Amino acid sequence: MRPDSHARTMLPIPDRPAPTLTTYDAKDPDTAFPPIEPLLPPPGAPNVLVVLLDDVGFGASSVFGGPCSTPTAERLASGGLRFNRFHTTALCAPTRQALLTGRNHHSVGMGSITETATSAPGNSSLRPNTKAPLALTLKLNGYSTAQFGKCHEVPVWQSSPMGPFDAWPSGGGGFETFYGFIGGENNQWDPALYDGTTPVEPPATAEEGYHLTEDLADRAVGWIRQQKALMPDKPFFVYLAPGATHAPHHVPKEWADKYAGAFDDGWDVQRERTFARQKELGVVPQDADLTPRHAEIPSWDDMPDELKPVLARQMEVYAGFLEHVDHHVGRIVDTLDDLGILDDTLVYYIIGDNGASAEGTLNGAFNEMANFNGMAALETPEFLISKLDELGSPSSYNHYAVGWAWAMCSPLQWTKQVASHWGGTRNGTIVHWPNGIAERGGLRSQFTHVIDVAPTILEAAGLPEPTMVNGVQQSPMEGTSMLYTFDQPDSPERHDLQYFEMFGNRGIYHRGWSAVTKHRTPWVMVGGTIPAFDDDVWELYDGSVDFSQAHDLAAERPELLAKLQRLWLIEATKYGVLPLDDRTAERIEPSMAGRPTLLHGTSQLFFAGMGRLSENSVVSMKNRSYSITAEVDVPEPGVHGVLIAQGGRFGGWSVWVDRGRLTYTYNVLGIHEFTVSADEPVPAGTHQLRMEFAYDGGGLAKGGLVTLFHDGTPVGSGRVEATQPMVFSADETTDVGYESGTSVSSGYTARTSRFTGKIHWVQLDVGTDDHDHVIDPEERLRIAMARQ
C-alpha cells in the first residue's frame, strides 16, 4: 500500500508541484509530468453514514427496550455495538452543531436553539471560523459529502433566500449536496424544502402519498447509488437527519394503527414494562433502579377518563412515527448492502438528539404552537377529544403529553431540555462497521458524548485534525475518539469529564460521578416560578453503581458535591457557558436578546414572486396595529388569489381576493378563523387595495378592528377577536402573490392561491400613526426605506 504523501493538517491541501525539467517542445522525449490524480483520503478510509433521529428518548426504541419497533436499529446492533452511555446536549441545534464540529455546543455559539440566540458568544448561534465543520474537513480530504434532512444551525437572520449562506450545509457547511429544511421542525406532509440554497416544493402532495421521511430516504438512496456508480473509489460522508420524531408527529394512519390498544394502560405501566425489557436485553445493568415520577408529572390514574383515549392515541401515533422513520433508514442500509459496501461503511445510528420532548403540555396538543404562544388553554379536553381521529394526519400539528415523554426516557429522570439529568441527554446509539469492529452484538458502557463522533470518524479515516482551514488556524476538537472502544470492551473510558447546560439546567460528569441541578421545567412556558441560580438544589450521583441517577448522595458526600460544583464552574468558564441565561420571552425578541435582524424599522416592501420568507425575514406585526397596501392591475373578468400571506393552516394571516372581493383572514392556531370581506368587488384597472388592523391593545394576543379600502375608500370592516402573540409557525413562510405550504384560509388551497391579476408592489407598515389610505407610487419606496 502506497503511503499517504499529503500534508493534510493544512486545508485545502497546498498544491506543491515538484520542480522538474521544463522542455520547450511537448514532443521532446524528456517531457514528463506526474499523472493527475484525484484527491482521495488515505487508503482504507471507510464510507461514513451518520443517522441522527430527533427527540427520541433512551427508552423509546425497541433496540433499547422501548415499545416502538425499530428493526433496522436492531439489525445494525446485532452486527455492531450498542452504546448505553452516549450523551447529547438536551436540545436539537446544540447537539447538531456539536456533532458536526467535535466541539461543545457553547464553544460553537449554540448554547440553545437559533431562535433564542443572544449576543453572548456562547449563545450567539455563530460558529467561529476557528472550528471548521467535520464535513468540510472530509470534503477537503477527498470525501464526497451530502446531507439530507434537518439543518437547525443557521442563524435566524441568515435564513432568508438571500443568505448569507456561510452556515448553510452546502454553503460553508462542507456538504456538496443538501436536500432538506432549515429550522427546528417541519410539516412532514407539506414541508418547506431546499435543494442546496434554492427553495423547492415537495414532489407530491399528502393526498398523493407524500411524506418527508420517505422523500429524504429516496434522495439519500439515489445520491449514494450515483456516487458509487461515478466515483467507486471515493468514500462518502452522508449525514441523514430526518425531522422524525420531532413534533408534529405526522405518520400514515396504518403505521399508527399497528399500535392500537398498546398504550391503553398509560405511561406509568409502560415505563415499568420498558424497564423490565431493558434489563432483559442487558442495555441497563441488572442493579439499575427505575427512577420515580416527579410530582410535576401527573400519573396516568390522575388523568380524566374521558381524555385517556386521546392520550393513548397520541402515543400510538408517536410509536408509528418512530417505526416509520426506522423503516426508511432501513432502505438506506439495504442500499449499502445491495452495493456491497455495508461492511466498509462506518454507520452511526444515534437514536435521538436529546431526550423525548416534553413540550406538548400535560394533555398533549393538537397544535403544538398553542403552547409556544402561551395559548394552550384553547385546546380544552373537549377540543382534544373532538380531534382524536385527526392526530397524525395533515390536518393536525400534534404532540404527545408530558407523561409519554417521561415514559420514553425510562429508566431515567426528566426529558429534553433538562441537561442536568440523563433523561435529557442520554441517547441510545449504535455503531456498525464490520470491517472495523470484530465483535457482533456487543455492548459498550464507556461514557461518550456527541462531540466524540467527529474525532472518531477522523481517526477511522486515518485523517489528522486540521490545524489550518481556509487560512484560519483551528482550535483543537474537544471530543475524544471512541475508536478505542470498538475492540476494547473493558478499556477504561477516556472521556471522563463533561459539563452540561441548557436554560440553566446544568450538571457535570467526572470519573463516574455526576453533580446536577434542574433549574426550570420544559413544559412550563408561561408563568411559573424560576429560582435564582444560587438557590438551585444540587444532587449527587455515583454512576459506577447507579446507572439511572436514582440515589441522591448529596447529603452523604457534601465535600464531593462542592468539588464537582466548582469543577462545573471551571468548565463553564472554559467553554463559554457564562453568563447563565434562563430568560424566555426576552430571548425570542431580537432587540432584547441582542441578535441582529434582517429587517429594521416599521415598513417593509415586497414584490410579486417573493416567497419562502421565514418569520425572521419579515417585520413583526404581532401585538400591534398594522396595514397592508398593494397596488395591483385587475383584469376585466375580475381576480382571485393571494396578495400576501404569512403562516399557514395552523396559524397566520392572509390578504387575498375571494371571487373579486378584497378579503382578510386571520387564523388563530387552526382553531379559530376570522374573515372580513369587502362589500363590493374590486373594479377592473389599476388600484390600491389596503387593509388596516387596529389592535385593541391592553396586552398580548388581543383582537382588533379590520377595515378594507379600495383606493382610500372604505369598502368593508369586521373584527378579529384574538391573535397569536409570539410565533405563527416553525416552518410556514411569507409569500407574495401565492402561498406555499398549507393555506391560512379554508377558502383556498395552495394550488388555487396564485393571484390572477398583476401585483406591482405590496407594503407592510406596522405600529404607525399615519392613515394614508393611498400611497403615492413615486413616494412608496422612499417611505419604506425611511421607515427602516
From TrEMBL:
It comes from the Bacteria. Residues 1-20 are annotated as: Disordered. Residues 46-462 form the Sulfatase N-terminal domain. One of its GO terms (molecular function) is metal ion binding. Gene3D superfamilies: 3.30.1120.10, Alkaline Phosphatase, subunit A. Keywords: Calcium, Hydrolase, Metal-binding. The keyword Cell membrane does not apply. SUPFAM superfamilies: Alkaline phosphatase-like. Belongs to the sulfatase family. This is Arylsulfatase. It comes from Cellulomonas terrae.
